[in-house]
Amino acid sequence: MTQREVDILVSLGLICWLRLATASALDLSHLQMNLAGNGSIMLASSSNPDAYNITVNLTESPSLSTCPSLSNADSLTQTELIARLTDSCRYDRLEPPTTLSDSGDSDPVDVYARFYIYVLKNLDSSDLQFMVQGLLQFRYVDPRLAFTTYAPSRKQPVMGQAILRQSLWVPHIFLANEQSSTVLGTNEKDMLTTIYPDGTVLISTRIQATLYCWMNFQKFPFDEQKCTTILESWMYNTSVLQLHWEVTNPVSFDSQLQLTEYNLIGSLYNESIVVSDEISMSHGALEGNYSTLSFTVLLTREVGYYVIDYFLPSIMIVTISWVTFWLQADQTPARTTLGCTTLLSFITLSLSQENNLSKPRRVRLRQHHLAAQQQPGAEETHHQIHCQVDICPKSEAQPPGLQSQPKHHQHGQGLWCEQHRHHH
């Protein structure tokens, strides 16, 4: 095919295209306006009446032309380097970082957590809650922030606080069993963001949180409690974000940590999945599988306080109540006074301990303790009535040898009455 034949075919094709454009009311000026962002188009008549000259000028996109350069990044300050890495032409802080697998699919972001606990206190059984204060860290990799290629001589990480954090994408992790929480700090909140040369991001936050703990008091005060802290991903499901505990020391405690009422015997940590659907609605309007981390502290109650302030007084009161069995049968005022005093002492002792228990468990435990403690007093009262009225009336019950003796010689009357009662 000759060059002339090629020109003829191109010309005929252009004429057909122009006719279609006219039929569909396509305005060339409108087409030129649409291309203004990336270039321009111009039609001009040629010497051939059946042919047109088309000139297309392509220009670079304004977003790319205005994007700050990362060349010679070693000479930039930390603020300038982060400003250029997170410029809108390169970085979208609303989008999580993505990495491609071998099959070409996008892998979820792996976020690794670590919790260092400074203080653990206020394990209040009446409110079923406890307070934890510690350092919470999240680590993940954002390839968009790697600056090793641009600044090979820069080996130190970039560190900053609130301003640096606001320019980055950070995972939204919340405490699922939280009652209240706050970020600690004096002038500024203690939130440290560290970016390493390979793109690893470390978010460190000092927090104080009050968490719910569902306690079991079946064996109070010899009970063992398990209080759990739950961390969940709020916005992204497992297809976008997955939570993991750090391999080394995921949960650790300060060496100076002390508890007033409990002994810390260990901790457990776990990774799981929470399903959010139309029924559970654990994540609002968001449905799917969400990654969850949890760690549980194992506690045993310190029983020394209850032995000294509860069990020993109870034993002493019960022992004193037995004195009535050695009193003479006709000493009714002494028996009555001792029985009433014993009963009131039991009630006062139980009321002094009721604040240590939650209301559902308080009723059950008080019933058991009161029943066990009041049993000796009830037996003593029953013995007094039975011995005074039914078995030992003054006219018949006393043996002949005791009737003629003075009162101070009748010390065996109570013992004889007891033997006589068993005989009957």
TrEMBL record:
<feature type="signal peptide">
    <location>
        <begin position="1"/>
        <end position="23"/>
    </location>
</feature>
<dbReference type="InterPro" id="IPR036734">
    <property type="entry name" value="Neur_chan_lig-bd_sf"/>
</dbReference>
<keyword id="KW-1071">Ligand-gated ion channel</keyword>
<dbReference type="GO" id="GO:0099095">
    <property type="term" value="F:ligand-gated monoatomic anion channel activity"/>
</dbReference>
<keyword id="KW-1003">Cell membrane</keyword>
<dbReference type="InterPro" id="IPR006201">
    <property type="entry name" value="Neur_channel"/>
</dbReference>
<keyword id="KW-0732">Signal</keyword>
<keyword id="KW-0812">Transmembrane</keyword>
<dbReference type="InterPro" id="IPR018000">
    <property type="entry name" value="Neurotransmitter_ion_chnl_CS"/>
</dbReference>
<comment type="similarity">
    <text>Belongs to the ligand-gated ion channel (TC 1.A.9) family.</text>
</comment>
<dbReference type="Pfam" id="PF02932">
    <property type="entry name" value="Neur_chan_memb"/>
</dbReference>
<dbReference type="GO" id="GO:0005230">
    <property type="term" value="F:extracellular ligand-gated monoatomic ion channel activity"/>
</dbReference>
<feature type="region of interest" description="Disordered">
    <location>
        <begin position="396"/>
        <end position="424"/>
    </location>
</feature>
<dbReference type="InterPro" id="IPR036719">
    <property type="entry name" value="Neuro-gated_channel_TM_sf"/>
</dbReference>
<dbReference type="InterPro" id="IPR006202">
    <property type="entry name" value="Neur_chan_lig-bd"/>
</dbReference>
<protein>
    <recommendedName>
        <fullName>pH-sensitive chloride channel 2</fullName>
    </recommendedName>
</protein>
<feature type="domain" description="Neurotransmitter-gated ion-channel ligand-binding">
    <location>
        <begin position="79"/>
        <end position="302"/>
    </location>
</feature>
<keyword id="KW-0407">Ion channel</keyword>
<feature type="transmembrane region" description="Helical">
    <location>
        <begin position="303"/>
        <end position="327"/>
    </location>
</feature>
<dbReference type="InterPro" id="IPR038050">
    <property type="entry name" value="Neuro_actylchol_rec"/>
</dbReference>
<dbReference type="InterPro" id="IPR006028">
    <property type="entry name" value="GABAA/Glycine_rcpt"/>
</dbReference>
<feature type="domain" description="Neurotransmitter-gated ion-channel transmembrane">
    <location>
        <begin position="312"/>
        <end position="356"/>
    </location>
</feature>
<keyword id="KW-0813">Transport</keyword>
<keyword id="KW-0406">Ion transport</keyword>
<keyword id="KW-0675">Receptor</keyword>
<dbReference type="GO" id="GO:0004888">
    <property type="term" value="F:transmembrane signaling receptor activity"/>
</dbReference>
<keyword id="KW-1133">Transmembrane helix</keyword>
<keyword id="KW-0325">Glycoprotein</keyword>
<dbReference type="InterPro" id="IPR006029">
    <property type="entry name" value="Neurotrans-gated_channel_TM"/>
</dbReference>
<dbReference type="GO" id="GO:0005254">
    <property type="term" value="F:chloride channel activity"/>
</dbReference>
<dbReference type="GO" id="GO:0005886">
    <property type="term" value="C:plasma membrane"/>
</dbReference>
<dbReference type="Pfam" id="PF02931">
    <property type="entry name" value="Neur_chan_LBD"/>
</dbReference>
<keyword id="KW-0472">Membrane</keyword>
